[in-house]
Each structure stands twice: as C-alpha cells, then as structure tokens.
Sequence to fold (557 residues):
Amino acid sequence: MKEENVDTSFEEVRNLLAIVVEKYPDELDGVEVLKEKWKSNKSWLFPFFDEWGRREIVPDFSQEQITGEDIVNAYNSAYKKAEQIKAEKERFKNEPFVCVSCTTNFLNNFIDNFSTKDLVENKISKPFLEFNAGTKISRILRSYPLSGYGHKDSIARDPIANEALVREFIDIVFSNFLSFLKKRNDTKVILSINPLDILMASAHTTGWRSCHKFTDGEFKTGPLSYMCDGVTAIAYAYDRVDNYKLEEYTTSVSLPIKKWRQMVYFDRNNFSAIHSREYPCENTIYGKYSRKLAGYVLAEYAGKDKKWKVKFFSEGSACIEEERDNESSYDLRLKTCWAYRDHPTSFIYLKDGGHPPVVSIGVDIPCVTCGEIRIDDMTYSLECKSCNHRLRCCSCDCDLEEDSVYYYDGEAYCSYCFHDSYGYCVHCGEVFELDDLTRVANDDLVCEECLDANYAQCSCCGQWVKIDYITETVCQDFVCEECLERYYDYCYGCKEWYPVEDIAYYCDDTGNIYCKECGEEQSIEQCSGCGNYFERDYVRINGVVYCNHCAREVMVV
Fold:
C-alpha cells in the first residue's frame, strides 16, 4: 500500500472520527496511535494487496444462477427508488393514489407469476393469460388488471387519467426492478486491509447496518480494534462508488457503497482463515469469491498451490479451488471487549501444509482523542472516560449517570425518554421503536420477527397469543383458549373444534358433543318428551323415542 494512500486514508479516518466525537481533527492524538498499530500489525499482509490495500475480483456471473435472494435484493432496491421517484417527480408527488406501498405490493404479486429466468430475460417461456411464449413481461404488465392495487375510489374520480398515471408509475418501478436484477453483473468483490474500509465496515452501505457502525453502533469501537490487529481484513461487494457524507463533511475520495460484507480473520501460522457472519444476509456467490481472495493471499504468503479445503457452517457453494471438509473444527477467540464476535459462516485452510484456524481477534485500542490505551469498557464511545465528558439524554438533554443510561442506535437516553419511544422484545432482547413492537396477550412487547415465529393472532378477539396456546378450528381460524371456551365446542367424533352454532348434538347421558356430520354417523336419538339428545339412555315406546326420565312419566300416565 502506497505511503501517500496510507496518509490519505488515515486523514479521512481522522476527519470522520472528529465529527463523531465532536472535536476538531487536530485534537485527535489517537489517530496516530491507530496508524502505527495498523502499520505494525498488518505489515505482513502488505505485499499481497494493491496500492490502496485492496484485492479485487470480478465474479463470473455467467456461471452463477440467479437466486431468490437476488430477486429480493432487486425488489428492495426498486422500493427505495420508488420512494425517491414519488418524492421528486411533480406529477406523482401530490397524487395520493400513486402509492409506493400499493405499487410494490402489486408488483410483488405480479412477479410471483414468473420464473427467475423469465424475469431476468424479461420474457415468458410459456403462455400466460392471453399472451404467447416470448412476450415481454413488461408488455404484459401494461395490461395486467389493477384489481389488487387499491385506491379504487380515488382512481374512479377520473378513471382514464388516473389509471394512466398509476400505470406509468408502476412501469417505471418495474423497469428499475429489472435494472437492479441485471446490475448484479457489475458487482465486484473486494478483500481489503485499508483502514478506512475497516472503519466503515457497516457504514456507506445500501441501507443495512450492524452494531459495528462507527457513527452510532452499540459496538462502534469494533472497527478500531479490527483495524489495529494483525489478522482482520474486510471482504465486501459493491457495484458503485460515491463520496461518503457525514453531517457537513464529505470525503475527498470516492468509496465503494457496500451491498454485502463479512470480516475475514487470517491465521498465517496454519495457512488458514475464518470467514465471519455475512451482512445484511448470506450470499453464496459473494462468499465464494471472498474465500477465493483469502485463499490466494494464503497461497501467496505460504508459497503454495492455490488449493484449499473449506468447511461450511451454513449454506455454501464451493469454488473450483476448494475441497469440502466436514470434520475439522476451528478456534476463534476475542481478545478484548471492544468488538462483537459474530459466528463464522466458513473457514478455509491450504491443502498443502495448512491446518484448521486458531485465531484471536481484536486488540486494545487508544482513545481517539488523547491517544492513551483505554481501560474502560464503553463500547458505545470512541473516547475514554476522561475525554468523554458529556453524557446527557439526546432527547431531553438531562444529565445521565452511567448506571442509568439506555442506548438505542448509538444515542444515550434517560429512562423516561427511552421508554416513551422504545422497548425490548421479550424474546430476542433487542431494542426496537415502539411502532415496530406488538403488545401480545400477556402485555409483553414482541418484535415482528419473533411475533411471526412464536405467535398467532386470535380470529375472535384479535389478540396475539403464543402458538402453544392457540388452536386451529375446523374453519381454519386460530383461536385463543379463552375464546375457544366461550365460542367453540369440541366434536367427540372428528376431534375438531366447531363454532357453537355449528354443533348439532349435545348428548345429555354421555356428555359427548357432535357436529352434524358425526352426529348422523352415531346412534343418537332425540327424546320426544324433553327434546334432548341421548346416545345410550333412551327407550322406544310404541315406536317413539324417550329418554329414561321421560319414559317413566309416559308409563305412569
């Protein structure tokens, strides 16, 4: 890595950190300490990276299948673009029936009709509705019924003009979807030891973040610890670059906008590497090329053939240089408190002379302001206690004590302000905005993901109840225990729950209850005297059915 590029990168690191800690750049004595630690510990990697501390590879997408994940990513990108178009284009901006949510929901249902291959090629491979094979999907869209769109009343006020405007917006969003889907072919995968790249591990992204975001992450110190150790590199995928903006500051260099990333931890003694969790989600193609870049570094360092073994801890697609290993184990340790240790997705080791990795990641870090090695454990702060004088609620600005601070998105809150806007999911323990939490039957708060995994909504009272305490009825409704007892009965024959009004037989003698169909299959008779139903305790007198009680009265008479 060229010295001038090292200086440029650390100058950007200095300027960005200064904004986060609200100091002038020349007040940050800790940046020089970071620079010396980075140089000292990562110097063994310098010969294997370019003048900016990066290695680049362009995936051969012609050999890779389009995945459902690619479809989801393209759809999400199109949604964001739709919001931008709606906000910027005058003809759409003030029309409520030109709705981003309705448009993307409509398109989501529309694209479900087609295969991944058809969507990539924008033409159908078999007949659909009145259209022949080979017809462009974008052409089909222009006449596809808007029945599932919504805003029918608003559109009906001027149906010709309003529907034309809605269809124009839908067409633009769909075109963007196709563009994003094809754009994966422009993606490059990078392996980097550049300090600026490591600092921005979870910043300058396509919208995702992690706890290691240096501006507001819960472990904003993590990138500094990774930057300074002798084992960590960052792998990421991107298809465009831009200057990074933080408040009023804009970087002097254009930086990749990350679609995906993972940390890579090298064990040079064992010629091996651990590939950590992938953000925002696992991508088999990017993961494959990340391992390829790391494998090349190890092979060049060791002077060995570029062949290695790989062990996956999740879904993985091996490349031509790899041989699977399903037996070996690894050892990954976190040396300090400053970073958060994610679970690996895979590890590799050279076939010639390599062994499974044993890696200790992270090192102690300096306070970015005074430069002294820190002995506190404030992972949410880039400064030590002595330099971080101000600890106040970001909402009401009241003074805070360290043992009574609540954090969300890197900001400190007093108890009142925090609980006024945020809450903890009772299952995963993560913090969410109250609007993103659901209050369930026992008054607990639950996030959307845990709600889907653990709860169902009662069809009667509307409350969310744990799946273990909810019953599916014969009508395919989900009903909580309280409503089940109040509004339903259990058929003794088919073992299904029925609404009370659908139960035909209540047998007084056995206590059994039957639906109409099951009741007709049983030997159940209705007493001509009292009108109740009986399974066993009845008699016939002159061909007329009576229960035992009514029979005695008839016989007395």
Notes: The chain has a mean pLDDT of 87. The first strand starts at residue 54 and ends at 57.
